[in-house]
Specification:
It is a single chain. The chain contains 19 helices and 18 strands. The chain is an alpha/beta fold. It has helices at 18-32, 49-52, 90-93, 104-117, 138-147, 175-180, 198-205, 214-219, 223-226, 230-235, 272-282, 305-315, 330-342, 355-364, 380-386, 397-402, 421-436, 438-449, 455-470, and strands at residues 2-6, 36-42, 55-65, 68-79, 82-88, 128-132, 157-162, 170-171, 191-192, 195-197, 208-211, 240-242, 292-296, 321-326, 347-351, 367-370, 390-394, 414-416. The radius of gyration is 23 Å and the shape is elongated. Helix 12 runs parallel beside helix 13. The mean pLDDT is 96.
């Protein structure tokens, strides 16, 4: 089985968010299970020179973009047992950052068409093209409308993964003729709510549509979560499924992590206390045996910080501490900055992002708070489990699929259902109460560390999906 994994970003080359983690880790997990998986992505100018030196030029072709043809260079790189193809066009990709340009629709329409055009030139005809988010949404559309009559493409199937339905690739209808270049009379494929919607086109044309957790696959059928796409998704529920992402258990491994103060395993979990004391010291908090609650997040409403803000000072009446890392909306940055100044012995804040500090919070905190309004999958709660830091989460999306309440004696965290500040507060009180029971808390955090959130289980689920598509 041969899979071409198409993404607008992938580690180790380029990253702006969680998609790069997925595109960096899932293909490797597939390859370890003897799936012939290769990755294709744009060749951005921001890619390091060290990585560019590992690329080999294959050839160049021209790619249709509506009525014109554009240069397309094809490069190949072999890194850590994986084969990557990088699509070069300096007009589209020699820019600062990855996204946010007026012509993003044209840039990724070019990339989507290039993915199909390069197939005869790379010596790799895939059985499946696995597309990710709106930037690759035109691949299933172009394949169905323009390439299926060619025997080299006739048997190729497509999977389209929605990582976050909020970002759909929505543009004015004028994009249709000048950029997309679909056959005349086929506007309805990408038309939705009187505009061009690239994700809608992929949902309609792909053979399978996946999201990054089973709960999120159900949630996006509800207008509250769908950002307007629930009606089209309801038409195609027969091809919709949810598969939870994994985490890189080599990067997030308390036994070998060079960023934390003291390495530990599930058998030496008491050494976690050393990480807590050193984190308290680094963040200028008193080194005391009070529950330390960690937050590593974008500080935005979407992540549930309205709830935290509502009851934060009430929580601080208890003997506990917070250490917070993140940046985001001015409202929340200012709030936590004021709280850190007012409660110096209880609240420590670092605005921005610091990878080393993030790892130290995962290792040093007792509890990890993640009260999201919605969360397609979530990464931080699974990382927290890996480090024996007990999560408190709202039951939404991937949080619901990876964290279960420990009230039954079997769960791996504390959960609440309604998006309500006092429900969240009650979950915090239950966690603080659990922390006071030293023996029970040790059982719970040991259970957390034994959870398997590696990419292996996700890869097996995707392989099952691929086999279903190919009827193998």
């Amino acid at each position: 089985m041969k899979v071409l994994f198409a993404a607008s970003e992938a580690l180790p080359f380029a990253m702006s968010g969680g998609l790069a983690d997925v595109a960096g880790a899932l293909p490797k997990a597939l390859r370890r299970r003897l799936i012939g998986c290769r990755v294709i992505m744009p060749l951005y100018s921001s890619i390091s020179e060290e990585l560019k030196e590992k690329m080999k030029f294959i050839c160049h072709i021209t790619v249709p973009v509506s009525w014109r043809r554009q240069y397309c260079g094809i490069f190949e790189a072999h890194i850590d047992g994986m084969i990557y193809y990088l699509i070069d066009n300096q007009y589209y990709f020699k820019r600062d950052g990855l996204y946010g340009y007026y012509d993003d629709a044209e840039r990724y329409a070019f990339f989507s068409r290039a993915v199909l055009e390069v197939i005869p030139h790379i010596g790799f005809i895939p059985d499946i093209i696995h597309c990710n988010d709106w930037q690759t949404a035109m691949i299933p559309v172009y394949l169905n409308e323009m390439y299926k009559s060619d025997k080299r493409y006739s048997n190729i199937k497509t999977v389209f993964t929605i990582h976050n339905i909020q970002y759909q690739g929505k543009y004015g209808m004028e994009l249709y003729g000048d950029v997309l270049g679909l056959p005349e009379g086929r506007e309805s494929i990408v038309e939705y709510d009187s505009c061009v919607n690239l994700m809608k086109g992929a949902i309609q044309c792909a053979d399978k549509v996946t999201t990054v957790s089973p709960t999120y696959a159900k949630e996006i059928l509800n207008p509250y979560y769908s950002h307007g796409l629930d009606e089209i998704l309801k038409q195609f529920t027969y091809k919709l499924t949810g598969i939870v992402n994994g985490i890189d258990t080599d990067v997030y491994n308390p036994e070998t992590d060079s960023m934390i103060y003291k390495n530990y395993t599930v058998d030496t979990i008491n050494d976690k206390a050393i990480n807590k004391k050193q984190l308290q010291k680094q963040m200028n908090l008193p080194q005391k045996n009070a529950p330390l609650i960690g937050i590593v997040s974008r500080l935005v409403k979407h992540k549930g910080f309205d709830l935290v803000k509502c009851v934060f000072e009430e929580l601080l009446k208890a003997d506990l501490q917070f250490v917070i890392l993140g940046s985001g909306e001015w409202e929340f940055e200012t709030f936590f900055y004021d709280m850190a100044g007012k409660y110096k012995n209880k609240v420590a804040l670092k605005l921005g992002f610091d990878a080393s500090l993030a790892h130290r919070i995962y290792a040093g905190a007792d509890i990890f708070l993640m009260p999201s309004l919605s969360e397609p999958c979530g990464l931080a709660q699974m990382v927290a489990l890996r480090y024996g830091t007990v999560p408190i989460v709202r039951k939404t999306g991937g949080l619901n699929d990876t964290i279960s309440d420990s009230g039954d004696g079997k769960g791996n965290g504390f959960t609440f259902s309604d998006f309500n500040a006092h429900d969240m507060q009650n979950a915090v009180w239950r966690a603080v109460g659990g922390y006071a029971d030293t023996d029970g808390w040790n059982v719970l955090r040991t259970r957390c560390m034994k959870c398997d959130n590696s990419w292996g289980s996700s890869a097996r689920a995707y392989i099952g999906l691929y086999k279903e598509l190919l009827d193998k």
